[in-house]
Amino acid sequence: MTSRSLPLLCRSRTSAAVTRPSVSTSASCSARFAFRLPIQQYCCGPQYRIALSSATSSFSTLTKGPRRYTSTTRSVESEKATSVGDKARSLTPREQIYNVPNILTASRLISAPFVGYLVLHEQHKWALALFAYAGITDLVDGWIARKYKLQTVVGSVIDPMADKFLMTILTVTLSLNGLLPVSLATLILGRDVSLAVAALYWRYASLPAPKTFKRYWDFSLPSAEVHPTTMSKYNTFLQLLLIGATLAYPVITADNHHLGIMHDIGLEKLDLAQFMTYFQILVAGTTAWSGLSYAFLKDAVKILGKDEQLKMKQGRRGRAIIGVTFGSVVVAAAYLALTKDLPKKKEKGTIA
């Protein structure tokens, strides 16, 4: 050990066991920095490493190794950060999504493809039973969630999703089975597609920068609010009634007992068919009106932001998208009604 390193070790009250070769001057100077941390490992030279501990006042060994510096203090700090992160995650509030309302809604969502399968295979009684189940659970799950305060974000998403999924499947399958006019099915589905395209535009246009794919689908970043019009609410109710009546129509007309009851109250099968035709015309009118109302009413969509001129510009563009797309759907539905559906109705005698 050199004479310059002895005073440093004496002042630090540290005894050292050193093996040859001796510690150089650069190593003793480096030891002054090493004593400042609880446990340090510091490179002293090209081939030697020194380990010092101020807590135990010990000088471990001089060993050969590469030039490097490592500290257990950093690893302790990283462990503390990890434990703090774990505690923070454990304190993050989580919703209890496994409750009765969400289970009922999920069952309604799962039952939709089975209803469509039964309709295509003309199992109308079972299809009507499943549709009745879907309607009852739609009322019950909302009542339970409100009464017992079981509302969740998941429930607010999958509930309207289940309703729209069921309506779409039934509209397509009933049209394929000949129970629903093609023109009316085109109008119902075209309205939903038109509103979806406009909603995608409004979301992108009103999303604050940066406009990334992740932020686009992050609905915790609100950008626009859609308020259903009054006619849209009435139209949804009438569509549900029409779908239910269309499912019940073959069940009633295929059973002689039901036909006998109708005859007793003064109704015939032709009268019921005419009623369904007029009901379909009514729903076609409300569907067209409700879809076009989003193209003309400025209050239907509220875009969030501070730039009023930009908000007005985005609103006009979105309404123009609905006007063009849904206007084309209305024209196509009218063409199908005049060329396909109306001749069939006249052949059956449901329309004079």
UniProtKB/TrEMBL annotation:
<keyword id="KW-0808">Transferase</keyword>
<feature type="transmembrane region" description="Helical">
    <location>
        <begin position="234"/>
        <end position="252"/>
    </location>
</feature>
<feature type="transmembrane region" description="Helical">
    <location>
        <begin position="165"/>
        <end position="189"/>
    </location>
</feature>
<feature type="region of interest" description="Disordered">
    <location>
        <begin position="60"/>
        <end position="85"/>
    </location>
</feature>
<keyword id="KW-1133">Transmembrane helix</keyword>
<dbReference type="Pfam" id="PF01066">
    <property type="entry name" value="CDP-OH_P_transf"/>
</dbReference>
<dbReference type="InterPro" id="IPR048254">
    <property type="entry name" value="CDP_ALCOHOL_P_TRANSF_CS"/>
</dbReference>
<keyword id="KW-0444">Lipid biosynthesis</keyword>
<keyword id="KW-0594">Phospholipid biosynthesis</keyword>
<keyword id="KW-0472">Membrane</keyword>
<keyword id="KW-1208">Phospholipid metabolism</keyword>
<protein>
    <recommendedName>
        <fullName>CDP-diacylglycerol--glycerol-3-phosphate 3-phosphatidyltransferase</fullName>
    </recommendedName>
</protein>
<keyword id="KW-0812">Transmembrane</keyword>
<feature type="transmembrane region" description="Helical">
    <location>
        <begin position="272"/>
        <end position="297"/>
    </location>
</feature>
<keyword id="KW-0443">Lipid metabolism</keyword>
<comment type="similarity">
    <text>Belongs to the CDP-alcohol phosphatidyltransferase class-I family.</text>
</comment>
<feature type="transmembrane region" description="Helical">
    <location>
        <begin position="318"/>
        <end position="338"/>
    </location>
</feature>
<dbReference type="InterPro" id="IPR000462">
    <property type="entry name" value="CDP-OH_P_trans"/>
</dbReference>
<dbReference type="InterPro" id="IPR043130">
    <property type="entry name" value="CDP-OH_PTrfase_TM_dom"/>
</dbReference>
<dbReference type="InterPro" id="IPR050324">
    <property type="entry name" value="CDP-alcohol_PTase-I"/>
</dbReference>
